[in-house]
Amino acid sequence: MRLKNVEHGHREPEKSMLEQMQAMRGEQLPLPDIIRMLLYRPELFGTPFSICLEEIMHGPSEWSVGERELFAAFVSRKNQCPF
What we know:
The protein has helices spanning 4-8, 14-25, 33-39, 46-58, 65-78. By secondary structure, it is mainly alpha-helical. The chain has one domain (4-78). The longest helix is centred in the C-terminal third of the chain and has 14 residues, at 65-78. The protein starts with a helix and ends in a 5-residue tail after the last helix. The mean pLDDT is 90.
């Protein structure tokens, strides 16, 4: 399910940033949804999520960073979510 606000409701400068990123990728490659989500109200979701993700992926663990990346890719695939 896509929320219209997350698709088109970004504030400036996030809206400009998304437009620049899309221009660099070209029209054939849409931006990943996670990018749109991270930039929609970043103070509520983007920044806290990014901090948590950094800790999970690079913090102390019995698993290597590569193993954690592989697990993330596998879960994304199972959820039919482009990684």
